[in-house]
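User: quick one - fold this with S-adenosylmethionine bound?
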Amino acid sequence: MQHDRRTLERIRTQYLNGTAGNADYWQSADDLAAYDATFAQRIGWKWNAVLNDLDRLEWKPPAGAPLIDIGCGSGIASRTVLRHYGSASFASVHLHDRSPLAMRYAAESITAGFAVHVTQTAEYNTETLPVMPSDAVVVLSHILTELTAVQAESVVRSIANAAAVLWVEPGTQTASNRLVAVRTMLQPQFGIVAPCTQQCECPMNNPVNARHWCHAFAAPPAEAFTESGWSQFADDFGIDLSRLAYSHCIFDKRAEYHTATAEYRILGTPNVTSADAVACVCNGATVSEIIAAKKRAPSLYKALKKGNTDTPRALNLHGRNVVE
Ligand SMILES: C[S@@+](CC[C@H](N)C(=O)[O-])C[C@H]1O[C@@H](n2cnc3c(N)ncnc32)[C@H](O)[C@@H]1O
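Assistant: Sure. Structure tokens for the protein plus S-adenosylmethionine:
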């Protein structure tokens, strides 16, 4: 994996200083290719984690739905979803982005790999996005931090009519909190498939949880640690490739997918010592801190120590202590 450091630095600076939303930053197809080979791949790894979790929940997209990608960039979200479910699962792919260059790149990259009809929005305007078709599956990926509140509300109004929405964002507190705000706006129209284990109001809306945020970590593939291009990329940008934080919310109108279990999701990174692991957990209704002592909860302790935090678990709690 080779990367064009100057191009990526220019784009990343705008992501980091919060100015990426101000104007279209894609200057050429080369920009998109450089992004697609690096930052987008990491985003694809996050999508893989989310899609694997949806497999665990036995979630499937509605058969023959149009797949709509809003803020498609180089098209990584659509491609990852198409690879996971097969292009025959979708009737077509529709791309939206304020950048015509991005839509063209995404369309070409999708048609190069998948036998599916792809269309691009002729005149894109976030403030006047059309209402999405009622059979559509909409994907949104790493776009919220580039939208103003007004634009985000317009997107929410537009996607509220869809059949399902798959939304993945960075695992930062800011991005996660904005996604919770989206969840709150969309909950009257949809049930939640993931990450929530119940259909309650998100407990992150409660000010007592202000220091927590809903996020998880995806496992990168082996190539991230074996290919020299990736280690060069990590050095150049000071990125720890093993820490792939993301937040996500999966919405669906079909009642059979509205999750209702007594399980807890582990949020973020547990604090592990040689005696115990302290983790922040959410059961869909409340956020709390639990202690998995090596002696009383050996398998959870081991899992937390290894960083296996993706799957919700049933916990036998005595106060804050997990007892196995
Ligand atoms: C960080 S990139 C993410 C691209 C892709 N979804 C991914 O996950 O790799 C954000 C994308 O959102 C697009 N974007 C930013 N503001 C937008 C707006 N107001 N309307 C539509 N697209 C926008 C940008 O052009 C860019 O392609």
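One thing worth noting: The domain at 5-257 is CATH 3.40.50.150 (Rossmann fold).
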